[in-house]
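Suppose you are handed a protein chain with no further information: no name, no annotation, nothing but its sequence. What can you learn? This example shows the usual starting point.
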Amino acid sequence: MKGNTFAISFILKRKKAKNDEYPIYAKIVVNKKKLELSTKRSIQIEYWDTKRQEIKKSYHSQKELNEHLAVVKNKLYSCYTELLQTNKIITAQRIKDLYTGNVKEAVNTMVHVSSLHIEEMEKFLGKGTFYGNYKNYKTTHKYILEFIPMVYKVKDLPLDEVNYSFIKKFEYFLQTEKNCKNNGTMKQMQRLKKVLNWAIKNEYLISNPFKNYTISFKKYDRGYLTIEEITNIENLIGLTKRLQYTKDFFVFQLYTGLAYSDMIDLKTNDIVKGVDGEYWIIKSRVKTDTKITVPLLPLTLDIIYRYTDLSILDKTIFPQISNQKINNSLKDLGLLAEIKKPLSTHLARHSAATTIWLNNGISLEVVSKMLGHTKLSTTQIYGRILEEKISEEMKGLRDKLK
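A reasonable first move is to predict its three-dimensional structure. Written in C-alpha cells, the prediction is:
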C-alpha cells in the first residue's frame, strides 16, 4: 500500500534481563507506530553489537544466533509483503499477528469493530463513560446490525469496504427506515464517525471515510410552555395515582430543569443545604458528569416530601418508571390541561430554561450552571427573548422616554 513506512530493528530488553542475559526483541515500525516482538533468544550484553544489531564474533554460538535473527527479519518482511500484495491495511500489529499466526480478520469488519467499541465503553462505565452515552452508542450499533444485511445482503462488511458510499447509504437508511429527522440522523452519523475514529486509533483502519462528509445540524426553535399552560397543569386536581405522579414529575422538572435521566437518578444525598441555608440539588449529570446546582423552591420541596424522607440516606426519590411510560402519561395530562403542544420530559427542561428562568430575569450564565451545560453556547439555544419580556422592557423604555 502506498505511503507506508516500514522498518525492522533488533534491541535488547534490559528490564527483562535474567542471569545477566538480555532477551533480544525485534522492533517493528509502520508509519512511525512501534511494536516489539520477542525473538525467543537472549544474550549477554558484552556480546551484543548495538551498531550492527547482531551477535559479536567472540560469542561461541554467534553464527547460529545471527542466522536466527536473519530468519526472523526475513519472515517479518514476508508478512509485510503479503499484506501489501493482498491490498490489506498494513499496521505493526497486523504484521505481528501474521508472523505469530494470530490472525483475527474478524476484527477488521464494521460490526466487530462497533462491538469492540461498545465492550470498551462498558468496561469504563462510571469511570469516564456515562450510561446515557453508552446507551446511545448501543442504539447506533443496533442500527448498523440492521443496515448492513438490508443494504449489502451480508451479515458484516470488511472495514476496507466502509467508504463514502457506505456513509451516504447509512444516512438514507436512518432517514427512511428509522424515520430519523435531520438532527437525529446527524447524531447517529456523529457516533458512527467516532466509532471509525476509534478504529483508526486501534489500527484497524487507515483513514476515516467521513473526511468528505459534512455533519450538519439544523437550528430549531425549541418548544416550550407558556406560563398560562404551566398554570393549567399545576391546577389539575382529582387525578388518578398514575397521572398525579406524572404531574409531580413534570412540575418538578419545570422548576429544576432536570433531564429525565437525572430525575430517575436523584437521591436524598443530592439534596443538601446551600450557601443560603436553603435546600439545593447538587449532583453530577448522568449524561455528562458535569455538576448541577439548583436551589429548590417550596413547590419542589413539597413534591420531594410527598415521595421520600430526606433523613433516609442514599434513597432514590422518584419511582423508576421509564421515560416512554412517563411521556405516554403526559399525553393524557396534556389533554386534561387542554394543551395542544405534545408534552414530554424534554419539553419540561426547555420550559424551565425559557419560561421559568430566563423570562424571570435569571442570567444565561446562571441558567447554564443549573442545567449542567459544559458550554454557554449550548444554553444559548434556550435564550430566545420571549415576546412578553420584550413588551415589558419596551414599556419601561417608553415610560422613560416620556
